[in-house]
Amino acid sequence: MLTAFTRLTTTRYELIETPTNADGEVEADQIIYVPYVYRKVVTVEIDGGVIATHKDTDGNELSPTEVIKSHSPEGDDYTTAPKTFDPIITTDTVDGLTKTTTTTYELVETPTNANGQVKGGETIKVPYVYKKIVKQDINGSVIVTHHDENGVQLALDEKIKDNVKAGEPYTTSPKQFDSSITTNHVNGLTQTTYAHYELSRIPSNDQGEVEGGKTTIVPYIYRRVERIVTNGSVVATYKDTEGNELAPQVDVKINVEPGQAYDTEVKRFPIQTLSESKPTDDFVKVTVTEYRLVKTPENKSGEVKDGQVIVVPYVYEKVVSVHYEKKDTPKPKFEIPKDAPKVEKEEAKFTRFTLEDRRTAIKDMVDGFVKPDDVIGSYTYTGITDSDEGGAVITHIYRKLETPEMNKTPNDAPVHDKPEFNGDVIPNDSPVHDKPEYNGGAVPNDSPIHDKPEYNGGAVPNDAPVHDKPEYKGGVVPNDAPVHDKPEFNGGVVPNDSPVHNKPKLDIPTPEIPTPTPELPKPETPSVETPKPKPQEKYVTKELPNTGSESSALGLLGFAGVIGSLLLLKKTKKED
Question: Is the pLDDT of residue 95 over 90?
Fold first, then answer.
């Protein structure tokens, strides 16, 4: 504020009044006095000043005092104006969002003496008062989330607006998710799950403006849509009415997608003919067994079902018929003595163990007929036993055990060309042999089985020795037959059949009538203990073996000759 003023004193004279005789005519010899009378006027003047102040409502000075007039004469005109202040901006961070504080000043009102005249000896103060205005702005953010209806996060959160000024517009959109395919196995069948997500609802704040001091969440919710497809299989079974399996199960469709068409085929089983007879019978008992389809299954063909193993059951009725046929056996040329001893034919028998190709052996061949083992090493018995035509060898068939690697289900079963069925045995299946139920002992489908004498050691000859049989010309048969050296066995195949002897020509001489002679005492016949022959087992053949009565008679006659020779030799030794 101005405190010193300048004083100016001015003295002047001013006419009080104009004399009455101020104007006239001069008179002779007369001095006319015109009296002008003045009044002394002394004037004292003091200058003045004008200042303007700028403060807030709290009296805080916002700007230095402004001198508008200084040492101006009284009455001098003046004018003032308010000030404009720049905003004051400060920032800090709150919960990750920027907080901006802007301070500005606004004139409360214009002073009444903002304009006027200078007063002498006075400093006029023009007070400008301002209102403090504080504005705080906090930024905002917008985040988009993606979850399913169970709250499972499907994608990372998206920051659409990150720490921006409030009021800024934003828009959002849902995500598109790729479909997923997962597989697992249920009861050996492949189960495929196809899944995708579709928007369940649109959030109400999917678009708008950023709110200050806030993180806006835009929640997109999705619904999981699943389609589960389980593969299926189709198998065909072939059993009789009692549930006995007649042929292995056929895998028609294995672990394939549902909806695939399938078709199954009926199997035709060959008629089994069983011929039974004894050597002394004049007839053959023929048993014919066949299997007839009861009815075609209703699900013979169709489509693979989701998650199902369709069983197509072919059921057959076992039909057995028996008839008798007369033997067609040639008559012997001579009569066999009724009391001739019976000779049982020794025959070697073997059991083999092979794979389904009937060639690969998985175990050494053993003597005699034995039952199959359920498992041999890594191979399992298939339930099939073959027999050769001669009936001397039976073969148990095995297949390799399945391993976990083999249990892997292929996507699609291989498709094979199926040959046209023209009757008889179905070509896809292995040959079916006539095989009766195996109860131990001799296999009934094969050639006749004779009792095999117990082996008590010694070398087995490759071929039985062939002896020259002397021509029978009558006379006494020797007690003991000559003893021959027995060759050493040097290996080789043991024949199934007994040695075949040369059959001498049978010349029966016409006996002469002898001259009566004194009756000689009969030599005492020593008792020869022979093993009691076992009862001959019944045998079964599909065809009668080529062993007629002529061969049997020849064997019996040879045996009788050997017995007679033994007796004659023993008698001769006693006489010596």
Answer: no
Dist. CA 533–CA 517, nearest whole Å: 40
Lay out the sheet containing 48-56: strands in order across: 61-72, 48-56, 123-138, 97-109, 88-94
pLDDT tens per residue, range 429-450: 445 555 555 555 544 445 455 5
One DSSP character per residue, 155-216 reads EEEEEEEEEE-TT-EEE--------EEEEEEETTEEEEEEEEEEEEE--TTSEEEPPTT-EE
State the Cα angle at 513 between 511 and 516, rounded to 5°: 135
Q: Round to whole Å and give the CA distance between 101 and 94.
A: 12
Residue with tokens 């079902």: 305
**CB contact at 8 A, 159 and 142:** yes
E strands, 231-345, in order: 232-240, 245-256, 261-263, 272-277, 283-293, 301-303, 309-326
| 144: nearest Cα among 53, 205, 61, 195 | 205
Using CA atoms, how far apart are residues 74 and 440, in angstroms rounded to an integer? 155
Residues counted in the chain: 576
Q: Which two tokens stand for residue 265?
A: 């085929």
102 sits in the region (left: phi over 0; alpha: psi -120 to 50; else beta) called beta
- CA dihedral sign, ordered 485, 486, 489, 495: positive
Residues 6+ apart with CB under 8 A from 111: 80, 126, 127, 128
Residue 558 DSSP SS3: helix
CB 102 within 8 Å of CB 87: yes
Separation in Å, CA 26 to CA 17, 19, 20, 30, 418: 22, 15, 14, 8, 175
Reduced to 3 states (helix: H, G, I; strand: E, B; else coil), residue 16 is: strand
Could you report the per-residue pLDDT of 476-496, keeping only the tens digit for each? 445 555 555 655 656 554 444
- Is 32 exposed, middle or buried, given 0-12, 13-18 or 19+ CB atoms closer than 10 A? exposed
Cβ contacts of 115 within 8 Å, gap of 6 or more:
77, 78, 79, 80
The DSSP call for residue 356 is: T
User: Using the 8-state DSSP alphabet, how is residue 242 labeled?
Assistant: T
List all residues 6 or more positions away from 69 whose beta carbon is below 8 Å from its beta carbon: 48, 49, 50, 76, 78, 118, 124
Identify the band that residue 542 occupies on the pLDDT scale cut at 50, 70 and 90.
Answer: very low
* Residues 377, 364: Cα–Cα separation, whole Å: 13
